[in-house]
Amino acid sequence: MAMASGTALIYDEEMTSHKLLWDDPICDIEVPERLSASYEQLQFYHLVERCVHVPAREGTEEEILLVHSSEHLEIAKSTQTMDEEELKRVSGNYDAFFFHPNTYRCARLAVGATLQLVDSVMLGKVCNGMALVRPPGHHSQRNAANGFCLFNNVAIAAEYAKLKYSLQRILIVDWDVHHGQGTQYIFEEDPSVLYFSWHRYEHQEFWPSLKESDYDAVGLGKGKGYNINLPWNKVGMGNSDYLAAFFHVLLPMAFEFDPELVLVSSGYDSGIGDPEGQMNATPEVFAHLTHLLMQLANGKLCVILEGGYHLKSLSESVCMTVKALLRDPIPQVTGEMAPSLSAIESIQNVRAAHKPYWKWLMYEDTSFLHNLSTESHLPKKTNTNPSTDHEDKITNNNEAAKIERFLELHMRNILFPVPPIRTATTQSKASAYLLPAPVCVVKEMDKNEVEALASDFYADLVKEDKTLHSLGSMLAILDKILKKEVCNGITDSPTASASVGVALRYSVHFGFQRVLCVFVGDMQIVPNTQDGKVLVINICEKEQSGTMSSKHFISLNWKEDADRSDFFSAVLGFILPVAYSYQPDLIVIAVGPNRSIGISGISLLFGLLQGLAESRILAVIEDTDLNLIQNVAKALAGASVSHSGAYVPPTQEKVHKIKILKDRLQQDWKMLQCSVKDGISSN
Ligand code: Q9C
Ligand code: ZN
């Protein structure tokens, strides 16, 4: 099958007809405007017209019965003809749910919309997509509505995909701020569905206040190890906490699991301003989370709306998610890049709980951390100055309006015009006709132009004529990245070290503040990293002489066996956390002589690092392996690269290597932190 492209968007206005008909302070946040406001914001950013419109349909009874009991279905069906009094009575049988005469119809549309999305992705009509649905699903259980959810849309989708497409491994990522206990119950004993959820927990104080939402609920029977709970014990979690959870918990497990399809229970009540979540994550973090998940399952990613109750935060976050699905360059993530102590504690505990089940964790010396928290969790303080419900509402409304103004400004600050050309190269021996179609050929600079522009930067570096010649190609592309005419580019060089040396000096001279250079292979010329404007990570086979390693020059010795790529563990556990801590505004990735990692490892590096530096990446390839060049070009042009089955867990020696580097550098690059026992100071 040809590689799928495109992003599906599913929205049906009818799902706004489900609404609360009476006073209920618990349910009154789940409003129809959640859906219409999200869709309108997508229209505002012109994202709707860039997506493939897929119609919703009703889910069939048979499909609903894949997960739910017939009793549950019959009760739901019977509410269609009830009057308000009867609806209120039936709703009262559940924890936080309301029926409207059209609820049953909407819930069937929500199920059907989700299945339409799965079909579009599985049949290769699109690569990925998002379904905007109401009512949400993840609290709903086999026999009960719960937490605004009637049918479990995502759980039904997973069962449907298993059955219809014979899938054996599905990953469900639940980034809603509530625990999807419904989904957990449904797949608890099922090793074919890996369920990950983070959630506000506060040591079981927060709804749904279940013991089984804690990190030690790892699944049952054959499903042991396939349920991952990451409970947040404090409010105020932000961008760096969420990213740390992905780097140090979810992603390594997901890569080892190697899913064939990824479903996201996509609640945005984990975003800033949400009255339920009380968290701090800003909309762009959801673009990063989405982009990270796009590296799995050959890009087959279905995002299905769950919660999200601050309309502005919700709709901007939905837009950031869709932007990432469309493979637009994404904004740099804002805020200090250091996870909080409480987040690190939670991460450490879930890693320890899962150690028996995941090979990648096997060699880690993880241990549980029991309530070492700086403040112990005392029972809730009784309010000495009780305010009325009415006063509370006013305070909350003021807070919500403040966040709304903040977000208006924030989005204007972080959004940027996308360069007209995505990927550029020059006509050279890796001739353009060998590269995938979207790569654009630009004219290289001639000798005079190179000399006029850059002679100050290469005099001491360039010893050979062939190097000087190749600078014309590299500088033409770099110049266009600098002028924001192109997003990224690929050039070949007979001497990558020298070319990279020139590229780094040129970039810093023309205004980049932080340039990340990942150099794969032997680096013959070591760039000056003294002023902190360049950070080099050198991946090579031979041990570098230890003296020159520093915070800004990191040597990572890594050798892969042929066809056994274990490099993903270094990328996720080390390179990405360092890169996110550094927050580069340009990335140079070079492949020099004697590369010690394989093509799938290198492709993964390119795929993942594109989430940073607004996707500004310069690739300098010395290697003449055409397969490598084509894969790099594909990754840059935004095709999903297939690495299915290519990953193996690292050896004990490699795990140890990463551990030593982490210990040495985690005070400088704080996103490396994932345990507290080595004296991380409270922040
Ligand atoms: N004291 C979703 O976000 N809160 N559901 C109940 C009871 C219910 C959230 C509080 C929150 C449900 C999909
Ligand atoms: Zn929620």
From TrEMBL:
Cellular component terms per the entry's GO annotation: cytosol; histone deacetylase complex
Pfam families per UniProt: Hist_deacetyl
Domain called Histone deacetylase: residue spans: 30-325
Keyword Nucleus attached: yes
InterPro entries with a match to the protein in the record: HDACs, His_deacetylse_dom, His_deacetylse_dom_sf, Ureohydrolase_dom_sf
GO biological process: epigenetic regulation of gene expression; homologous recombination; macroautophagy; negative regulation of transcription by RNA polymerase II; positive regulation of mismatch repair; spermidine deacetylation
Keyword set, alphabetical order: Hydrolase, Nucleus
Molecular function GO terms recorded: histone deacetylase activity; histone deacetylase binding; hydrolase activity
Record localization: Nucleus
Coiled-coil positions: none
Similarity-based family: Belongs to the histone deacetylase family. HD type 2 subfamily.
The name this protein goes by in its record: Histone deacetylase 10
Organism the protein comes from: Anas platyrhynchos platyrhynchos
Gene: HDAC10
